[in-house]
Write a structure and sequence with these properties.
Elements lengths: L1 E10 L3 H12 L4 E4 L15 E4 L10 H18 L4 E2 L3 E5 L4 H13 L4 E3 L1 H7 L10 E5 L3 E4 L1 H13 L3 E3 L6 E4 L4 E4 L3 E10 L5 H4 L6 E4 L2 E4 L16 E5 L5 E5 L7 E6 L18 H15 L9 E3 L2 E4 L6 E6 L2 E5 L9 H12 L17
Parallel strand pairs: 1-2, 1-12, 2-9, 5-15, 12-21
Antiparallel strand pairs: 3-8, 4-8, 5-7, 6-7, 10-11, 11-12, 13-19, 14-17, 14-18, 15-16, 16-17, 20-21
Helix pairs in contact: 1-5, 1-8, 2-8
The structure holds flavin-adenine dinucleotide.
């Protein structure tokens, strides 16, 4: 078997790994990327057309600089490729004033100096009549938010990395990562790579590739809907921007309106099933009762003009960490990791890729990363 040499190997070229490959190649690092599937494939966590993009991130105020870095990097990439990776059409965080989306967005905006606008219940109801609101519902409008494109972004990260000199091995499964004193060896059935450092971005498989991490993959299908009135403009993206809405029982809905190239996307937050799955044994069938009934009931109850039967459903996975934050950083001298996306990682992937490149090359990170440090566990 051939043994290749590189400065850095990136294992897993999904959202985080493709971005790390690009940002390392942009620094002139001799980098090899290895991915077990094709680039931009539908078997991990980074497929299904779009993801929500937010700046005032309710999950942690420290995420705002990472989202901003993603916009900066994607904008510069767009200038070179002519493709669009993020559309900042704004988004609504809806719920009671003390709900996580509303209070979390306010906290993040205040901490990071992001401009947001509070909408009272009456303003929300008159501007967005699609919502069947509870009496206490208000909203925070995040004008820098919107949607980002999933598979094209992953492909563009990898293509740009290759232009900058990275070598990529798709359809190549990493079977072992041996960290030794002078180097690290990444094993596959066809090649071995000896490098100074390895960056492991295995998504739902990260816990298998790097044992001992407190990660729990969750089966989380993606769903698309249509309005009952097919000619209605009410659920177009321009009229029905990205949103996250928490109900009094702690569950909630998130999604965005349709456009030329995608349907109305709506998902359910807070469902307790399908946690702790083995990604190699993922049930990829869609079960009408188990997968659809609860979401359909929530859609019918909260967006009465949407047809509650989804018109498209595909399987996907989220990988939860115990505190809902990512694990991004150094595990030891030769091993850097990124994962534990907890369902909100895509919007940050370019910014995380930049952090991974900075951590690997021992530059000072552009923002505080202590809240995502893997050594916190
Ligand atoms: C239903 C759903 C909705 C979501 N909504 C949003 C949203 O609105 N906004 C948002 O920001 N985020 C959202 N997310 C989260 C976001 O999609 C993830 O944070 C992101 O895609 C995770 O990227 P990743 O690089 O960790 O994983 P992946 O993209 O899955 O990449 C991991 C890669 O590692 C590869 N790999 C694994 N094992 C090996 C091996 N042995 N050898 C080689 N390669 C290997 C895999 O094939 C895969 O390509 C959502 C996720 C889901 C499932």
């Amino acid at each position: 078997m051939e043994t290749l040499r590189a400065d850095v190997v990136v294992v897993g070229l999904g959202a985080f790994g493709s971005a790390a490959l690009w940002r390392l190649a942009a620094r002139g690092v001799n980098v090899i990327g290895i991915e077990r599937q094709g680039i931009g494939h539908p078997f991990g966590s980074s497929h299904g057309t779009t993801r929500l993009f937010r700046v005032a991130c309710m999950e942690h105020p420290g995420l705002t600089p990472i989202a901003r870095k993603s916009v900066e990097l994607w904008t510069s990439l767009s200038e070179r490729t002519g493709e669009v990776y993020v559309r900042q059409t704004g988004s609504l965080n809806v719920g009671a004033p003390d709900s996580h989306p509303v209070s979390g967005a306010r906290r993040a905006a205040a901490a990071a100096g992001a401009s947001t606008t509070d909408l009272s219940h009456d303003e929300l109801a008159s501007r967005f009549p699609q919502y069947d609101l509870a009496a206490e519902d208000v909203a925070v409008w995040d004008p820098g938010a919107g949607i980002c494109y999933a598979e094209p972004t992953v492909r563009a990260h990898v293509a740009e990395a290759q232009k900058l000199g990275a070598t990529v091995y798709p359809h190549t499964m990493v079977t072992g990562i041996d960290v030794e004193s002078g180097h690290v060896t990444v094993q596959t059935p066809t090649i071995a790579v000896q490098a100074e450092q390895v960056v492991v971005c295995g998504g739902a498989w990260l816990g298998k590739l790097v044992p001992g991490l407190p990660l729990s993959p969750r089966r989380t299908p993606l769903f698309w809907f249509q309005p009952k009135d097919a000619g209605s403009e009410a659920f177009r993206l321009a009229n029905f921007p990205a949103f996250i809405w928490e109900f009094p029982d702690g569950r909630g809905l998130w999604g965005h309106g349709s456009d030329e190239d995608f349907l109305v996307k709506v998902g359910l937050d807070g469902a307790q099933r399908d946690r702790g799955v083995d990604p190699d044994e993922l049930d990829r069938y869609i079960h009408p009762r188990k997968d659809i009934a609860e979401l359909s009931a929530a859609v019918a109850g909260h967006f009465p003009e949407l047809d509650p039967e989804p018109v498209k459903v595909i399987p996907c996975m989220v990988t939860d960490s115990p505190d809902g934050q990512f694990l991004v950083g150094r595990r030891d001298e030769r091993l850097v990791i990124a994962g534990g996306d907890s369902g909100h990682g895509f919007k940050h992937c370019a910014g995380v890729g930049e952090l991974l490149a900075q951590i690997t090359t021992k530059e000072t990170p552009y923002t505080d990363v202590s809240f995502v440090d893997p050594l916190r566990y």
